[in-house]
Each structure stands twice: as structure tokens, then as C-alpha cells.
Queue: 4 jobs
Job 1
Amino acid sequence: MKISVEEGQEKGFLSDGRHTVEITGIEEGKSENQGIPYFAARMENEEGFVLQRFYLSDAGRPVIMGLYEMVGIEPKAGHDLDTKQLIGKKLSVEVGDYTYNDPNSGSERTLRQASHFQRV
């Protein structure tokens, strides 16, 4: 079997710990369980990457505002934020695993995630 490697797929996940990363891409979608809109930011450096989802919900809004602030974009009432503004921005993130129970199957799932955003 041959496995093709596309541009950007040559890296593995970032290891646990704090990393300085650049946001290199944004994907948009809806959650599998409740259909909540989200954007996923690909954050990477020379060592690897992490893909972090940001949900457009009441609970997720403070996290999104914090992300924008950490990359130097000040959210202002009455002005829309464009996720494309995030591409090319750098920040420091804490990378680790997050384990939860899947609401559909009840089985345990583990995701690699970025959290505790800081300015660089």
C-alpha cells in the first residue's frame, strides 16, 4: 500500500507542554452531535501541529474572544470578527490530551487540544 502525503500532512501532533505556534489554516463546520457551528484553527510550528475547535456557542464565546485578544486583535461590540484574520498570527499554547464520554455512544474519547493561550 502506498500512502500519499499532501502538503501540510508531513507533521505529527505536538507533544505535551507549552509551544509557540502559528495559526496556518482555518476550517469551518458543525458539531457532529448538536450541529453547533465551529471553526478549527490549525496551529503549528516546526515540531508538529494541533487542530483546535472553537464552538460558536454561549459557552465557547469567551474562549474565542480570548484567542483573538492573545493574537492582538481586540474584539469590539458591533464589529464582526473574521476567522481569516487569525491566519499567520502567533501565540503560545499549552498542548495536552482531553478525555470525555461521547454523548452518542457513551464510550470514552480522547482529543489532542490547545488551551491556556498566551501572547508571544
Job 2
Amino acid sequence: MIEKEYIEPNEGFSQTVVIKTGNFKTLYISGQIGDGANLEAQTIATFQNLEKQLQNCNATFKDVVKMNTYIVNFNPEVDLPIFRKVRKAFLGNENYPASTLVGVHSLGRKEWLIEIEAIAVVE
């Protein structure tokens, strides 16, 4: 039997959808963004928002199995070291989830520089 739970529903989407199957639950976390004047500040706030969604479901970054990251006007030489530094601060040094990073022209609002979505599995 599959159960669905919608966490923090908004107009048109939920922040997280939890699918429960047997002893496992899979968390589908919508793209999170964060406030800040630059990419580093927004990346920190974005990871904090991801962490909040995980905590709402009794999960941690260790439960994340997949992340998709979107960075506006991505410049690998400048932006990748910033992203990696912040990611390491939240996820540690090993056992990273499968990940995709995509440079995009824009996100849902012009002030957003980064958006990250995640999937986590919890026993």
C-alpha cells in the first residue's frame, strides 16, 4: 500500500511530498531557494531550507540520494568552488548523493541565483 503526504502545500505545489511504502518513505523535495545578495549567501540559505524540509520529515542530508541544482548564468571557474564549499559544509566529505548541476538563464524570479531540489529515502 502506498500513502502520500503533502508537506507545506502552497498554491500549485507542495514543498515536500512523502511517499510511504512499507517501512520506507521517499521524500520528494521541491526546488528550494534562499535570500541573499550573492550566490554564496543564497546557496547557504538554500541548503538551510533543504535541511528544514528534511527535518520536517525526520530526515537528514545523509538520507538524500539525489540532488538537482540550477545556477543562473553558471560560470564553472567562479561558481563551482562556491557551490562545492557550501555543499561540503552541509553534506560533509563523503557519500554524496547522485547529483546534477545545470546552468540556466533564469529561475522563477529574477533575484534567485540558485535552486536545489532533492530526493531522500528514509527507513
Job 3
Amino acid sequence: MWTEHDNALTCRYRFPDFKTAFAFMTDVAEAAEAQDHHPWWANEYNTVEFRLRSHDAGNTVTKRDHRLAERIEELATRHGAESVA
């Protein structure tokens, strides 16, 4: 579940294991490259966290961030993720 906080869309996902989390990150990297919009993210074992904002729009949330968030959400579902607060 994506929330807007501190001028960024944020979300954290938990996966069954590290291997699944890494496969998800690989898919997100391809999607981000295709959209030419690259997220800040962090990974620890089976958890991946995102912050999306558009630097060229003054570090605010734009439609580009929402589009990438939608794609990330689709990929997370495909990889069996659960949203983490």
C-alpha cells in the first residue's frame, strides 16, 4: 500500500525469502529503465522499501511516480509480496 509522506510515495514489501525479493528487484529495475524513472530503494533480506519522487519536478510526487508505483505494485503481487507498515 503506497502512502505519500515527506514529498514521496513510500511503500515496503515483504517476500517469502531473499531470492524472491531479488527477482522482484530485477523486474522493478527493468520497469524503471523502461519508464526512465528510477526509484530510491533499500533491501534487507526479504524486505524491499521504496521512495518515489521526481527530482526534475523539485522533489515532489508526479504522475510519473504514480505510474511507476502502479507497475511496482503489479510486480510485487506477481512475486507474492505482502505490504508492510
Job 4
Amino acid sequence: MNNVLEFRPKCPHVESLSDCREALEPAVMKIVSDAIGKGYTAAEAAMVVADIADDYILMLSRQPRH
């Protein structure tokens, strides 16, 4: 899987994002693998994971900042 972070400009959050991706990617890949085991295609599973993440980002954007 390509690491999108390598194409981003250097900023203070890149290390943190890279560490977070390293920590979470195996769990996401397991979710996709489990979905494939239940009969969904890899593309379907990946799209649903992305959709859930997008919904969560939108929910976070509506919360007041402290």
C-alpha cells in the first residue's frame, strides 16, 4: 500500500500522522480482511472504511473547538 504521507510537505504533524498510520494500518487491514471473509469485495470494504472515516471527520468538524 502506498504511503500518502511521503508526498505531503514537511510539517510538524507529519511525524505524528506517520506514527498514527503505522499504529492503525494493521487494524484497518484486518477489518478489510474480515469483510472479505464475509463475502464483501476488498473495494467495498475499503470504501466503507473510508466512508466511516469521512463521516467521523465531518462530525469532528461540527464540534466546537476548545
